[in-house]
Amino acid sequence: MFLDILLFILGIVLIIAGANYLTEGASVLARRFGVSPLVVGLTIVAFGTSSPELVVSLVSALRGNSDIAIGNVVGSNIFNVLVIGGITALVTPITITRSTIRREMPLMLLACLVLSVMALDRVFSGIGEVENVLSRSEGIILLGFFLIFLTYTFAIAKDKPSDPHVTSEPVKHYPLWLLIIFIIGGLASLIAGGELFVRSASSIARNLGMSEGFIGLTIVAAGTSLPELATSIAAALKKEPEIAVGNIVGSNIFNVFFILGTTATVTPIHIGGVSTLDFTMMSFAALLLYVFAVLFGQRVIKRMEGAVLVLCFVLYTVYLISQI
Q1: Radius of gyration for the alpha carbons in the chain, expressed in angstroms and rounded
Q2: How far is 110 from 146, CA to CA, in rounded Å?
Q3: Which of 112, 113, 133, 205 could form a disulfide with 215 if both were Cys (CB 3.0 to 4.6 A apart)?
Q4: Mean pLDDT over residues 186-197, rounded?
């Protein structure tokens, strides 16, 4: 058991380090070859922050641990909104741009609803014997949504090159050989970390008598969301909370459309330990964030509303623990 915990922590460290080095190497290399900061920000950086969830979900599904795969994404989306959004608002009230309220937040809510309809076959078919499965065809549909989202985002961002979600930092100077090591080493670290992470999480769940769904919704989801948590808190401390919101909303859209789309296309995801309540909580969290954003027309998530978000997560987690 102690060894599993150590391997679990090591897996998290390898995943986060791998994501950072892969993103850094690929971003600098792309900029060196003349790729614009806009393209780098919307593709490589966005992919890099979501790569922990992608690796864990894909490895879990391929190993037959489907509940960890789906629980990771559903739990990450809940964690992103309620914990990261809540803590960020507690640090400093979040002013949200009109474009985020009009475009990205509704799309995040749509992603949650589409995933719920696709995953909960038993509920929406009305047939009790039907198994909840995210099929390959549904994975392809999710990837289609992702391509539409990416195309639309590029079109909008080109019209507004000052979009706060896109970084325009100066190019860092690394030797070419070091960039290659960053990319290859980062990718290897992600794969090795994902394998350790999933294997140890499954073992911990069995030893403690917990379901893989519970582990995926809580510990795994929190672990893979650490890059978003660090980025959002840093943005809040720098008095740039709008970047934190863009990070949260964009990550949730990526999680559903890209990560589950890719994973389900590679191998169908059989859903057993993630319940209707969990999918409902994911959609409710997205809706609550949107309501707080448009409340009174001020486009501000205040500290009190941040406290409500965190409290909702605490109550949800207490309920999950009570069901063990």
Answers
A1: 19
A2: 12
A3: 205
A4: 84
CB 294 within 8 A of CB 149: no
| Torsion region of 126: left, alpha or beta (phi above 0 gives left; psi -120 to 50 gives alpha) | left
* Predicted confidence (pLDDT) at residue 38 exceeds the cutoff of 70: no
Q: Could you tell me the pLDDT band of residue 112, with boundaries at 50, 70 and 90?
A: very high
Work out the widest C-alpha separation in the chain, in whole angstroms.
60
94: three-class secondary structure by DSSP: strand
- Report yes or no: 37 and 168 within 8 Å, Cβ to Cβ: yes
Identity of the residue numbered 255: N
Write out the two tokens for 323.
């069901």
CATH of the domain at 149: 1.20.1420.30
Cα–Cα distance, 170 to 165 (Å, whole number)? 16
Helix spans in 92-175 (H): 98-99, 105-119, 121-125, 136-159
Q: How many CB atoms lie within 10 A of CB 101?
A: 16
Predicted confidence band at 251 (pLDDT cuts at 50, 70, 90)? confident
**Residue burial 5-28, b: 16+ Cβ < 10 Å; e: rest:** eebbeebbbbbbebbbbbbbbbbb
Q: Cβ distance 179 to 25 under 8 Å?
A: yes
Separation of alpha carbons 258 and 225, rounded Å: 16
**Residue type, position 110, single letter:** L
Using an 8 Å Cβ cutoff, are 265 and 66 in contact? no
If one counts the domains in the chain, the total is 1
Burial code of 260-294, b = ≥16 C-beta within 10 A, e = fewer? bbbbbbebbbbbebbbeebbebbbbbbbbbbebbe
Q: Which domain holds residue 186?
A: 2-322
Tokens 């080109």 correspond to 158
Buried b (16+ CB within 10 A) or exposed e, 156-177: ebeeeeebebbeeeeeeebeee
The string over 104-118, giving b where at least 16 C-beta atoms fall within 10 Å of a residue's C-beta and e elsewhere, is bbebbbbbbbbbbeb
